[in-house]
Design goal:
By secondary structure, this protein is α/β, with parallel strands linked by helices. 47% of the residues lie in helices and 14% in strands. The strands form 2 sheets. It has a 6-stranded mixed beta sheet with strand order 1-2-3-4-6-9, with helices on both faces. Strand 2, helix 1 and strand 3 form a beta-alpha-beta unit. The N and C termini lie far apart (62 Å).
Length: 282
């Protein structure tokens, strides 16, 4: 492997962990070393009690320019066993791991978001971009189709005609257009991006972790179910929350609303860490 330096950087602050793709000189194009380090980093953070929210972003003003064509493609052409291993690692962290992550995840997009970077973009739970960010499914322009799972996750997340248009043309589009067609939640002026992501992370931190985890998993899973399957799954999922929820969110939230009248669900969540107080009040 040609890279031995640390190409992933982690910052932790008040429960929010930011993971940086750290190859700014390559616009954070993804090399084999980066894939391995991202996979290991996300694995460790999922079990880290000090990490409540994970933000994915790129160092130096770019989210990611996609796969490093020289290192990931040409560099592995003559080593099919290693190429297969790296493809498995690259797909694992960008999809299986992030898509099923136990903790809320946010993509923070500025600069370039190209090709293979759409996998981690669409695997995270939320995505906010700068208005000036540049998105492109550019594979068609250099001779391949949107591979790995890119074509699949794109067509699953936006209207079919949008997916076909941008996949077949490879045209770049900005953050406002990415929000309009559904690749991200919304875009903001570049100078406000960090503040907007911090606000979203703060709002998520105030929710019950058990209920938030179950909710995001449920919404993802029911997408591929029929109505009967979804009904059974959601009933079982709702019951499962109550078995292993240290906050006892259902009872606590109900008590704060009905008995204490201390909050309104349409305006925000119940106050965490108050279970014993609620029980004493009954």
């Amino acid at each position: 492997m040609s890279e031995t330096k640390k190409v992933v950087r982690v910052e932790k602050y008040n429960g929010v962990t930011t993971v940086f793709l750290n190859r700014p000189e390559k616009r954070n194009a993804m090399s084999p070393a980066l894939h391995e380090q991202m996979d290991q980093t996300l694995l460790e953070l999922e079990g880290d009690p000090d990490t409540k929210i994970v933000i994915i972003r790129g160092e130096g003003g770019n989210f990611s320019a996609g796969q490093d064509l020289k290192e990931f493609f040409r560099g592995l052409e003559d080593n099919p066993a290693e190429a297969k291993r790296m493809q498995e690692i690259a797909n694992r962290w960008r999809w299986e791991r992030l898509y099923n992550y136990d903790k809320p995840t946010i993509s923070m997009v500025e600069g370039y978001c190209v090709g293979g970077a759409f996998m981690q973009l669409l695997a995270t739970d939320f995505a906010i971009a700068a208005d000036t960010a540049q998105f492109s499914l550019s594979e068609v322009n250099w001779g391949i189709l949107p591979g790995a799972l890119v074509a699949k996750v794109v067509v699953d997340n936006v209207l079919f005609r949008h997916a076909l248009y941008y996949s077949c043309l490879g045209d770049a589009f900005d953050g406002k257009e990415a929000a309009r067609v559904g690749f991200i939640n919304y875009s903001v002026p570049a100078e406000k991006l960090e503040d907007e992501v911090a606000k979203l992370a703060d709002k998520l931190m105030k929710k019950s972790p058990a209920v938030l985890r179950a909710t995001k998993q449920a919404v993802r899973q029911v997408r591929t179910m029929d109505f009967n399957q979804a009904y059974d799954y959601l009933h079982a999922k709702n019951m499962a929350i109550r078995v292993n929820d240290p906050e006892e969110s259902y009872r606590t939230g109900l008590s704060q609303f009905i008995d204490k009248k201390s909050y309104k669900p349409v305006q925000g969540p119940f106050t965490l860490g108050t279970l014993l107080t609620d029980q004493t009040a009954k």
